[in-house]
Amino acid sequence: MASRIFKGAEFLIGETSKDDVFIPEDFSDEQREIGRTTEMFVNNEVTPLREEIEHQQFDHVVQLMKKCGELGLLMIDAPEEYGGLELDKATSMLAAEKIASAGSFSVAYSAHTGIGTLPLVYYGTAAQKEKYLEKIISGEWIAAYCLTEPDSGSDALGAKATATLSEDGKYYLLNGTKQFTTNGAIANLYTIFAKINKEHFTAFLVERTTEGLSVGPEEKKLGIKGSSTTQIILDDAKVPVENVLGEIGKGHKIAFNVLNVGRFKLGAAVTGAAKRALEVGIKYANLRKQFSQPISSFGAIREKIADLTAEIFAAESLVYRLAGLIDDRLATIPKETPNYYDAYQRGIEEYAIECAIAKVFCSEVLAHVADEVVQIHGGYGFIQEYPAEGFYRDERINRIFEGTNEINRLLIPGILLARAMKGEIPLQREAMKAFESLMTPSFEELDDSVPYAAEKALVANLKQAFLVLSGAAVQKFQAKVKDEQEVLLAVADVAINIFALESAVLRAEKMLPNLSAARRAALDGTVKTFAFTAAEKTASAARKAAFYTAEGDTLTMLLAGIRRFTKYDAAGLLQAKREVAVAAIAAEKYLF
């Protein structure tokens, strides 16, 4: 167990040591073996069937899910008493990351093991778990999650599906339509949300064979074509009263708490997909010749490879740092605790901000990687015979499901402000300190003996910028700040970049003692490359927030502070990028 348990969002107002973060290099032999098993499964079992799966031969998906069950890959998060492995979140994220290179199949897997299984694990009664959980974690049955409706996406509580108690009191009759259900056509058990008496938002466990339930046709999608996406149509669907999941009227707890894990797991999955796409891009660049030399020798291509490597490093660092945070907190909850999973869920909910950050940052890293891999392929990146085209189409959905990136961005300052109002986070006090520092000249010099001193100073300064901007926004808009979405989106981007950069720097510092000189040069270049990118992006977002929030002398002061707080000396950046690119091109894959 960690010596210190961090609160959610504490990274914005405090310091973290390299010894306080979990990094991929900390994986145990057991965790690495699970990662290798997952990788081998994808390479040996899924890849040969990938084309058939893309043409919606879902019988392959069903059989592959059963093989996942045989390998234990569906039971990582399930409790031991019901046949699960009950492993930590770091292991769960590693499996999600490794299976991501399976393309559409990984969507079926992630939906099943995440939002399909976890509502039952966290909220199911003993009888419900006895009846369903073993079937789900063995792969005998496939699970799906039905929240979205044709007229309610981000506004989940605006759902119109209804549930009415039958006259004999034995069933609830469900009516309505659920939209965009992943695994819809192949699932045996659905978690369906409906309002009892049009009022009490509630979750139900509904079997595929339920009278009154039917599955709509497959949606014709832009990407992830090999995953099933359908409507689930409810016409007086007869659901036994014992299949109510959790408490009546408390369905929102299930919907939103499970989505925290879904967002987190998505962050891991898209990071794995980004690694695979970059590998394909580098190998193509080494093979493709123009002007009698490989295009990987050209500076324009090398810069892309360096930038993408740095962004993936930050995404990976962020995901496993968050895994460590959650695992450390969950480890403090004794298994014999009454209502264990209530406490467990609160432990995860503590990091709702970080889960939203993982979803947004990592999905946008994959978007950049997929786009640039198409560009590296040139015209061939537009041809279906090359995998770059598929990466590009499949990537797009990740910025939409598990809550759009806009919704997740709004959650970050929204949750933070709510906690500050409750006194859980001393945001106002820290913002006042930041304002004081804004008007106090700084003459501190960097200690060159400290690894990544410049980057650490940048992280500390970016936190000051965040606090100043947050304080200015609250001061101007008061309670109405929650409705100022443009301001909140800009402030969220500052917070996202802070968590990503700090995670990358702390991981790099922790890695240093075990690296050769050549590996250190590549690592140093990676950190410098990402620090420059993060500083530039944060400066842009911060200036936007300042212009949205202030005017006159206050605006002038804020802009001056932003220039000071986002300043980063990236001397040697070109050489740093070249060192990263050369190493990645030689390895023909993501470096770390």
TrEMBL record:
Which reactions appear under catalytic activity for this entry? a 2,3-saturated acyl-CoA + A = a 2,3-dehydroacyl-CoA + AH2
Cofactor needs: FAD
Reply yes or no: does the keyword Flavoprotein apply: yes
Drop me one GO molecular function for this one.
acyl-CoA dehydrogenase activity
Report domain Acyl-CoA dehydrogenase/oxidase N-terminal positions. 28-140
InterPro entries on file: Acyl-CoA-dh-like_C, Acyl-CoA_DH_CS, Acyl-CoA_Oxase/DH_mid-dom, Acyl-CoA_Oxase/DH_mid-dom_sf, AcylCo_DH-like_C, AcylCo_DH/oxidase_C, AcylCoA_DH/ox_N, AcylCoA_DH/ox_N_sf
* Family matches, as Pfam families: Acyl-CoA-dh_C (PF21263), Acyl-CoA_dh_1 (PF00441), Acyl-CoA_dh_M (PF02770), Acyl-CoA_dh_N (PF02771)
Which UniProt key words apply to this protein?
Answer: FAD, Flavoprotein, Oxidoreductase
Q: Where does the Acyl-CoA dehydrogenase-like C-terminal domain lie?
A: 461-564
Q: List each copy of the Acyl-CoA oxidase/dehydrogenase middle domain by range.
A: 144-236
Organism superkingdom: Bacteria
- Which ranges carry the Acyl-CoA dehydrogenase/oxidase C-terminal domain? 249-412
Keyword Flavoprotein attached? yes
The record's note on quaternary structure and interaction partners says: Homotetramer.
User: Family assignment?
Assistant: Belongs to the acyl-CoA dehydrogenase family.
Query: Protein name, please?
Result: Acyl-CoA dehydrogenase
